[in-house]
Predict the structure.
Amino acid sequence: MKKKRPTLQDVADLVGVTKMTVSRFIRNPEQVSDALRDKIQTALDELGYIPNRAPDILSKSKSHAIGVLLPSLTNQVFAEVIRGIEAVLEPEGYQTMLAHFGYSQELEEQRIATLLSYNVDALILSESQHTPKAQKMLENAGVPVIEIMDSTSKSPLHVIGIDNCSAAREMTQTMIDHGHRNIVYFAARMDERTLQKVEGYKQAMAANGLTSVVKETHSASSFTLGAKFLEEVLSEHPDTDGIFCTNDDLAIGALYACQKKGLQVPEQIGIAGFHGHDIARAMVPLLATVVTPREEMGRLAAKALLKGLQGESIKKQVIELPYQIECGESIKAL
Amino acid sequence: MKKKRPTLQDVADLVGVTKMTVSRFIRNPEQVSDALRDKIQTALDELGYIPNRAPDILSKSKSHAIGVLLPSLTNQVFAEVIRGIEAVLEPEGYQTMLAHFGYSQELEEQRIATLLSYNVDALILSESQHTPKAQKMLENAGVPVIEIMDSTSKSPLHVIGIDNCSAAREMTQTMIDHGHRNIVYFAARMDERTLQKVEGYKQAMAANGLTSVVKETHSASSFTLGAKFLEEVLSEHPDTDGIFCTNDDLAIGALYACQKKGLQVPEQIGIAGFHGHDIARAMVPLLATVVTPREEMGRLAAKALLKGLQGESIKKQVIELPYQIECGESIKAL
DNA sequence: TTTTGTATTGTTAACGGTAACATTACCACA
DNA sequence: TGTGGTAATGTTACCGTTAACAATACAAAA
């Protein structure tokens, strides 16, 4: 019953030629005589031939697939990065193979091995820290690799990202400029980029002689976590008049919690997020946020890889993309 | 310079055995003598050997990868489906290959061909309509295929989904029960499932002697589209006192637009969404919505495929999952 | 010592395309 | 009639791993 799928040989047998002729017809019909063309096409249709990349991958070690390794697939932040990557790769005929590692280095190592075992032609990573084994694999794989998200990464790879620390510092300073004083930072995941944002926040607070307070958890950020943090902060630090969140989800969750409690935003408490998702820029009040060029980041990374695939060797290079501080309505007016 | 990656042969040469011995060591170290084990491991580490699945895929036509075909990757709805699928497949050692086709049948055909050309072991689809060529490929591929999202699909495949029509009908009826009368439907994309929801909405309106009004577009839904639709509806149908949206994004966008205009929700206008995203269930006011079991759907689909992969033939079967009408605060209290 | 068994390693072939080279057929032209 | 050229098709080998089978070595049993 499990009729296995037809091969070129099956098609060739049906027509009465060798599979080489069928192969030629598929890739370049001109090379085949008029008499055969129709017959071969008919046979292909009749058998429902499906191309098979495995032999080509085996003999040329080229899969025409690009591996993309992200911490999380469900996080909106990365959705936009993916969109950017695909916008560039797809027209070039490359398939994107997505994998995620849930912010764990060990899982990342496994995922790198998996993607490479499928002979991806190139890799896009989103962390600078890898296990030694992962590093060795990346070196040995002989494929272009690029890292995204963090322009301050110490990675030896070609890097495209933003300066999270300075972005957080600027946003914090903006909140301070707007009159907020007791600003608390809401963190989650505690990955490298979050730590950098915390650092930027602390720098700005210290520079203004203010005291830093960081709420943190290793679990994922969510609307409900933002709400939970807000409740806690209000009882632990009743004089809090500002919240800066490591991403928009937390900020929006916190904002809703304020609305439920009848707290005025921004009058009583200012709230800012990070990344500038659609919703942040549509909601009422407009959320103050750091708009990051996520799609652009993906697009540039993909373009760089394409160059690498066309032979140009990818030189170690750091491209820092600009972010944008959006004041919104959720922090006080100047 | 482009040192290509080490093969089993390279490792074997280094140790002074045949690649077969190395292959055995990798898959089952017990089969190799004590004396060799260390040597082989050392050689593997030294060369940074990366397994290569291509030969295996070629000879066994098994890639240990599952293809998942979705209309859109960035849509939150599918993010949860993916999470469910991976939650089941990953522990079993299967890699998920995601592809999206932007709601186009032609693109879907291409994506099916691509995924099959990589020898995916099974496929999860999310549409019931395919091009004839795509259908033929699916038949010939000889891999388990399952369809998700729509339990009323006429597809000949094994189907796991919900009844969109009845869900929309129920939600509309709920809004009517709560006192809303001039309810307008906000649609987007106009794919099969949206059409079914529109149908359900119309049924409920008709059953109550009310007039249906549908705002529609072929473009993607978004917060801004919801806001735009609301503006238009208010001028075209000033007596509108209810909005039912094909998904939460539109609903939230419409709700924000109401807040901006100072319209009272739900007193002056009731708003309901579809799918029950996190944010809908955290926001103020709580959004009335149809909560759909998206993660569960993915999980069940993956489980069914696993069974199919373990030899049990997948019998054509329709599994209808329950949805849940959540009244929220964005429609009037009873 | 010879036989038998077992543990370990080696050898061969196969998977399905395609590059590279070989062959065939047919026509034009000398 | 034979020669050369070209268009069309055929043949062979290869990519890296592993299943299946073969061979070897060495220890235990006869």
Notes: Chain A has three domains: 8-52, 59-162+294-322, 164-293. The mean pLDDT of chain A is 94. Chain A touches chain B through 61 residues (CB under 8 Å).
